[in-house]
Amino acid sequence: MWESVGTLATSPWIYGLIVISILLDVFLPVLPSGVLVAAAATAAAAGTGAAAAGADTVSGTATDVPDLIVLTLCATTASVLGDLAAFRIGLRGGPCLDRVLARSRRLRTAQARLGAALARGGGALFLVARFAPAGRSVVSLGAGVAQRRVSQFLPWSVLAGVSWAGYSIALGYFGGQWLGAGWITMAVSVLSLFLAGAAAAYLLRRPLGDTAPSATT
To answer: Could you tell me if 21 and 31 are in contact, meaning their C-beta atoms sit under 8 angstroms apart?
Structure first.
């Protein structure tokens, strides 16, 4: 299985696959977009190591690997575009989404927390939610349902996308540098992504305090 992931990570199609996965996982949070990004970064680390060791670049050993800058741009752009799509759906959803919001404690909580965070002039909730399972979906839809302005939403979405992409790429790249491009690196990356998600989910479930005393789960 890990060999298949490694082969996919060095394919020229990896950028498109990552973009599609990140775009869709705002609606289907089970997609392994973070794992794909980390795997591509691990392949980039392997290519860098091969080049440093004097590998034959003519045959493609060290050149057919993802470029970290392009990978970061693809992951960040796809993350922001997916957030905006969910935001627009929430903004334009009308009575149907209002009914969904009324039935969903998670969306009601996100709406309350989001409103309180933006009222204080901050939006760190976006940043935390980007790492939590389904948190990106809940916050993006909740921001739209709450009729927040794009100028309030977009800067934090960009910051969250850059942070998430940077974290995922750093996991794969430095793991590949230190542990090699094998299954151990992938296992460590998956575990680190899971731990970050668990920590973010815990923070999102904490009471907001006096600003929004009812925003608990």
So the answer is: yes
Identify the weakest region by mean pLDDT among 92-101, 128-137, 146-155, 206-215: 206-215
- Residue 72: which of 135, 158, 183, 187 has the closest Cα? 158
pTM of the complete model: 0.78
3-state secondary structure of 36: helix
Would you list the domain boundaries of the chain?
Answer: 2-211
Locate 99 and state its tokens.
């009914």
Give the whole-angstrom CA distance, residue 159 versus residue 152. 12
Which pair of tokens denotes residue 91? 């903004």
How many other CB atoms are found less than 10 A from the CB of residue 32? Answer: 14
Q: Are 169 and 41 in contact (CB under 8 A)?
A: yes
Give the residue ranges of DSSP H helices in 105-215. Answer: 105-119, 124-129, 135-145, 150-179, 183-205
Which residues, at least 6 apart from 113, have a Cβ–Cβ distance to it below 8 Å? 125, 204, 208, 212, 215
* Other residues' Cβ atoms within 10 Å of the Cβ of residue 171: 26
**C-alpha atoms less than 13 angstroms from C-alpha of 159 in its C-beta half-sphere:** 13
Q: What percent of the chain has pLDDT over 70?
A: 68
